[in-house]
Amino acid sequence: MTVVSVLHVAQPTDGGVAGYVVAACRDQMLRGWNVTVACPPEGRLAEELSRLGVPSLAWPAGRSPGAASLDEARRLGRLVEARRPDVVHLHASKAGLAGRLALRGSVPTLFQPHAWSWLAVGGAVRRASIAWERAAARWTTLFVCVGAAEAEQGRAMRVRGRYTVVRNGVDLDRFRPAGDDVRAAARRQLDIRQTAPVAVCVGRVTRQKGQDVLVPAWRLVRDRCPDAELVLVGDGDLLPALRDTAPPGVRFAGAATDVRPWLAAADLVVLPSRWEGLPLTALEALATGRPVVASAVPGLVEVVAPGTGALVPPQDPAALADALTQRLRDRTGTATEGAAAARHAHRFDLTHTFDRLAAVTGSLVPQGVLA
Predict the structure, then answer these.
(1) How many alpha carbons lie under 13 Å from residue 251 in its C-beta half-sphere?
(2) Cβ distance 309 to 253 under 8 Å?
(3) Residue 1: its pLDDT value, please?
(4) Which residues form the domain of 79?
């Protein structure tokens, strides 16, 4: 039996990407693989890996491309040369840039976009991002996409190569349906009124996640549902501006290492994103038994099924407010959607995700046999 040696490379080091890398490493270690992660030494990811006992290599790298990118690629190349893994797995656009510049196909290379880089930008930068992905495809052994929509987006932009879909999943043992008693306990813990209709938004407070659409929408919600409360869980660059403009009934909770109490406390979860891959927060909300009100963008359309919440046009505060108000005023109907959401979540069992990831990773190892 051959023991597979995998080097994961990750930047960013927070949010869903960090959570995914940690969970993937945990699974692969249980399979008996040699797993290492190259990532910036500061931040949530390095801390989680240390707690888990996963070896990590310090790879200082900024989140965005820039003048330092070539030096970052060279440093990464030296780490790979010293480690000599069977497979390198690059997570998100920055690691994808540095890793493919450094390796140029010399080692079997998985690239997992976790949402394509061009979705975040416009104009000349968008065109450059697409051109880069087309060029880098020659150094990509396999594109690993978190959902079918992500693969379709790559092909639509003529990023040619081998694609496979390893759909994101949720740990159904860790995220379980939270009934009325659990909701009440969570609200006591978090100091939320027991009788209040509550919407929770979990995610980095950035343009991508769309809280700047949600906060104006909340003014409309409060006009029709004056006792409703909105909780924003997360940190990010939009926080100062949103704090200054938020209407009554909005609470800024900051980042949370464990979002389960916030999900349990909610009547529903809202994701007003402008773009996504296939967001873990949506899956975690469904598994907790909370309906999801979300933007109708690729990735979220793949997750929110009829009867488990609502999909609304992106960047449309009025439509978002309508969907939220309807559910916050009809808590019986919202509970029915929540029960359906919990059942739907079983389609996204994390066990299946990592069985699939192990199969595609192992297939790239010459004469490799999965542990």
Answers:
(1) 17
(2) no
(3) 52
(4) 5-169+350-362
